[in-house]
From TrEMBL:
UniProt-recorded name of the protein: DNA 3'-5' helicase
All residue ranges annotated as the Helicase ATP-binding domain in the record: 195-349
CDD domains in the record: SF2_C_XPB
Helicase C-terminal domain ranges (all copies): 404-550
Organism listed in the record: Microbacterium schleiferi
Length: 551
């Protein structure tokens, strides 16, 4: 305990001294159950939350494991109230279970809620939002759940602080032979562990950095379950990359894989659909809901689960009898619906820290920089006079950033460079200034794939992209990213954009990630969110002055 890097406080916050020699080790262990809240230069603040503790418990960590982490790295004794709180909160997970069992008066096994703790069962079953979901009380320790309410009751139980473990099992789906084609490659050890953790748990989320091969974890889960599979992805480009990877890495043939998107409507034993098509409405109704029952799916894979659109949660509440695998680089959702991911997709089953996988050589090391750009007097005055809702756009699209982008591209001449922005007029301007091709939402899918291919093959050294490139785009030789504007400092975006660089490089070079910030504006305030995400993953930010770059 002497002189550790952590200070545990009675309000469930934990302070981490960044410069301490043991800070990295402590951060990796702490991140399993605590969420990073603030990350300035010297002291990072974590918070121990109920959901964080329950996710850790579901992934196999006990209360004693978590307290052991705090005791091992703390500078002062852990406050007794925090230790009691952690034990009691973790102890709530699994006190209620959902099972299938035969009950009197029914030939079919029913969905039941059980507890060995009579007081807990009495408390939750008297809740006004839970009572309507229960349709019978055949024994003192058992309540029958309405057949349709498996997802909803888990959501309601989580809200009142009593998360249920779901042991009600899954439909096997229609069997379909799927094997990994591992002649000249093998799942990496952490990918195998992730697949095993998911298979043992039945449903849940695997958290791995971009570039760490989440698609292969999905393929491994499919090979383990050997059943018809529905894969939900963010966009059509991502759908085609999943298809290509499955054809390359598994025994599946093109005839067995269907694409269900704006361009095609194929339903096959393995069907890849976009979230957009699933949530499309016609005359106020979801037009493609039939896809969810088109086949007897035994597995549903949710790619980039942190981006799952809100309507899909509602649809997923009705899919609780099917195995569900969520894949993501971060459990953080900008809409705060992490609890719905826990209840409806499933709890976290596996989480490997970025720095750990980097140290094993599976993703590239990255150096992260924040470049602060001074606005000229005229632009500064325009910014000062603007309405609040205009200020971010003015700061993010400041023309002064264009010269800095040119300096950085020149500095990294010969390296594959991505320039990433949010605003289309800014992307146009930068593409013209660099004489580089651009990809936006308006770029046809075929042209996008052509440009991505040219970039991957090194024929296109600089590519300017809008946020369409954030998700599921495989650009393995990108070694420099220059972010000129983003979605108000979204941590989701930081995960995706840094992930563009973290795929292993043939050259072995360290990747460089630059964020351009207009000094003394809301742009700089929003950048703190980004710093927090990188600190969460164990990366530090170096702050550079734009004026000194060209020197």
């Amino acid at each position: 305990m002497a002189d550790g890097p952590l200070i545990v406080q009675s309000d469930r916050t934990v302070l981490l001294e960044v410069a301490h020699p043991d800070a990295e080790s402590a951060r990796h262990e702490l991140a399993i159950f605590a969420e990073l809240e603030r990350a300035p230069e010297h002291i990072h603040t974590y918070r121990i939350t109920r959901l964080g503790l329950w996710n850790a418990r579901a992934a196999g960590h006990t209360a004693e494991d978590m307290l052991g982490t705090l005791d091992r790295w703390t500078r002062f004794p852990v406050p007794p109230s925090v230790a009691i709180d952690i034990r009691e909160t973790v102890g709530r997970y699994g006190r209620l279970v959902i099972e299938r069992d035969t009950v009197a008066g029914s030939d079919e096994p029913a969905l039941v809620l059980r507890s060995t703790d009579a007081a807990v069962l009495a408390e939750v079953t008297k809740n006004k939002r839970i009572q309507p979901l229960l349709v019978g009380h055949p024994s003192p320790d058992t309540y029958v759940i309405d057949a349709w309410a498996r997802g909803q009751i888990k959501q309601e139980l989580l809200k009142i602080g009593w998360p249920a473990e779901d042991f009600a099992g899954y439909t096997p789906g229609t069997p379909h032979p799927i094997d990994l084609a591992e002649q000249d490659w093998h799942l990496r050890p952490y990918q195998r562990q992730a697949v095993d953790a998911f298979t043992d748990g039945g449903s849940g989320v695997v958290v791995l950095p971009c570039g760490a091969g989440k698609t292969l974890v999905g393929a491994g889960a499919m090979a383990d379950t050997k059943t018809t599979t529905l894969i939900l992805v963010t966009n059509t480009v991502s759908a085609r990359q999943w298809r290509d990877e499955l054809l390359k890495r598994t025994s599946l043939t093109p005839e067995e894989i269907g694409e269900y998107s704006g361009q095609a409507k194929e339903v096959k034993p393995v069907t890849i659909a976009t979230y957009q098509i699933l949530t499309a409405k016609r005359k106020g109704q979801y037009a493609h809901l039939a896809l969810l029952d088109a086949l007897d799916w035994g597995l549903i894979v949710y790619d980039e689960v942190h981006l799952l659109p809100a309507p899909v949660f509602k649809l997923t509440a009705d899919l609780q009898a099917r195995r569900r695998l969520g894949l993501t680089a971060t459990l953080v959702r900008e809409d705060g619906r992490e609890g719905d991911v826990f209840s409806l997709i499933g709890p976290k089953r596996f989480d490997a820290p970025w720095k750990e996988i980097e140290s094993q050589g599976f993703i590239s090391p990255a150096a992260c920089y924040e470049v602060r750009v001074d606005l000229p007097a005229g632009e500064r005055l325009e910014y000062a006079a603007a309405a609040d809702d205009e200020r971010y756009r003015l700061a993010a699209t400041a023309p002064a950033k264009i010269g800095v982008v040119k300096d950085l591209v020149a500095r990294h001449a010969g390296e594959q460079t991505l320039v990433i922005g949010q605003y289309l007029d800014q992307i146009d301007e930068i593409a013209r200034a660099l004489d580089a091709p651009q990809i936006t939402g308006a770029t046809p899918v075929d042209e996008r794939e052509e440009l991505y291919r040219g970039f991957r093959e090194g024929k296109i050294p600089v590519l300017v992209v809008s946020k369409v490139a954030n998700f599921s785009v495989d650009l393995p030789e990108a070694s420099v990213a220059i972010q000129v504007s983003g979605s108000f400092g979204s941590r989701q975006e930081e995960a995706q954009r840094l992930g563009r660089l973290l795929r292993p490089k043939q050259s072995g070079n360290t990747a460089s990630f630059y964020t351009l910030i207009a000094r003394d504006t809301v742009d700089q305030d929003f950048a703190q969110n980004r710093q927090r995400f990188l600190a969460e993953q164990g990366y530090s930010y170096t702050i550079l002055d734009a004026d000194k770059l060209a020197a």
